[in-house]
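DM between two lab members

TW: hey, do you still have the F-box domain-containing protein entry open?
JB: yeah, one sec
JB: this one, 331 aa:
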Amino acid sequence: LPLESLLKIASYLSFSDLWYFGTTSRSCQKLAHQLVWHKYHIDLARQRINSFNHLIHASIAYVCRYGYDDQNNINHTAIQSVANRLAVEIYDRTPQLNWAPCLDFLLDKALGIMLDHVLYDPSLDPLPHQQHEKDGSALSSSSPEKQKYSSTPMGRLMTTLLVTLYPTLTALFDADPASAIHHRLLLAHISRHIDILTRRYHQQHRRRISSGSSSFARTASVRHGFRVLVQFIGNLCQTELMTAADLHILTRQRIIAFFISYQSSSTNNNMVSTADSSCWRLWMDEIEFQTAVLLDLLRAVVCRQYTRFDSGKELNMFASMLNETVSTLVS
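TW: and the structure you got?
JB:
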């Protein structure tokens, strides 16, 4: 088959599917490496040169294949075994003395690849059905099941892997320095992905405006990827890896910058005051999408407050942000 047809087929396959396809024979391995390179820009052919990166990709492929049991519940045994192996591999690669710079380098690689995989196949990672988008019952319910935060399947897997890896790493290294390095790098990679999606979204928006198109097809995939990332962040906020204050800072500094409706007031006035109905529809659609994302964030803080009772201040802040957005929508 020509490469175009193979890539079309590969678009329906996840990274783990291609990875395990490559384990069946040498010819399949060569083809799988080629498809992975074209689809994800990951070079798996030079295993010896990128041995640590190759190990992380292999670990994630294993987690994706065996991370859920037959009842679609997290397989904690499989994830614990992967986390233990990764922690030992990182530990064995670091010197006994002055280990912090080496841990910083290896953890930067590992966390970067893990977070990349959250967004590698967003079209194959459906958003969970959330009743709170239809009404506010999930935010006011006191049921523990309804207060449990849910993200995409890949987001749940990566969150569980990160949460399982963290205590093992801090046990092997001095807890405080290792914890500080892990926290800083995790937030840095989350910020990196938000910035990348923001640039892509704004570029596509400018192309849509310049072409006079009112279609949302150009931005649909970026929006979906952004919500996948936001729900992954919300899932992290339920753990010890991220606090509600971290989530609030990320929202104020980066997540808000994603939305076109949060550009300068002159841009907004030009957009809203125009008589062009298509431009008005674009603006309304943007506000609706912003509301959906803020609901995801507010729900994350509500769930954390419900279980940890440490997010009252941030809960009020997110509620105010959502109220401002909804007021803009109905005004």
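TW: got it. The chain has a mean pLDDT of 87. The two ends are 55 Å apart (CA to CA).
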